[in-house]
Design brief:
Elements (H helix, E strand, L loop, with lengths): L5 E2 L5 E2 L3 E3 L4 E6 L7 H4 L2 E6 L5 E10 L2 E6 L5 E9 L9 E7 L9 E3 L7 E3 L51
Parallel strand pairs: 3-9
Antiparallel strand pairs: 1-2, 4-7, 5-6, 5-8, 6-7, 8-9, 10-11
């Protein structure tokens, strides 16, 4: 870890970090110099490496008053490492460190992922499937491409199991 302390998601600063699987970890970094227009002139990302060796890059963002943040949701327990990547020479925005990820108190579904040929093409990382969270309807009549006249679902309303009408799918699920 750099010699600078890291800002945790509660706004305080800390030397050590820990979180649970699929909780959101927020890291904050204080720039040492001003950077013209930080929204345009600065690229700020963070590379996270899991205990298994898999890597992810999460985009950072400018949060105002010289503070840059990055949010990440780890998907496995153990000791993770991170390294910030930026296009500017600023020691406050260049950091390396590590944090511990513990298992959650109860099972989590994780994020939706594609699974072509299974269900509706999406399932949670845990394998749990849920059609009701992913299907959208296009028109108020239940017939694609025809304008509605006051009955049926509103445009782009999420369909649930009780309103499911396969012919009314507007969103094409593909990889």
């Amino acid at each position: 870890m750099s010699s600078d302390k890291l800002q945790n998601k509660l706004g305080g600063f800390t030397d050590s970090l820990e979180t649970r699987v699929r909780d959101v970890l927020e890291l904050g970094f204080e720039a040492k110099t001003e950077h013209g227009n930080p929204f345009v002139d600065v690229v700020f990302d963070c590379k996270f490496t899991a205990p298994s060796g898999k890597e992810w890059v999460a985009p950072g963002f400018y949060d105002g008053q010289g503070t840059w943040k990055v949010r990440f949701s780890p998907n496995e327990g153990g000791r993770w490492t991170y390294e910030t990547v930026t296009n500017v020479e600023d020691s406050g925005l260049r950091a390396k460190g590590e944090f511990d990820v513990s298992e959650p108190d109860k099972p989590v579904r994780g994020f939706l992922k594609t699974c072509p040929g299974k269900y509706w093409g999406l399932e949670y990382e845990s394998g749990f499937r849920s059609v009701r969270t992913i299907l959208l309807k296009d028109t108020t009549t239940g017939k694609p491409g025809q304008p509605g006249r006051g009955k049926g679902l509103r445009k782009n309303q999420i369909l649930t199991d009780s309103t499911l009408n396969i012919s009314a799918l507007w969103t094409r699920l593909c990889v």
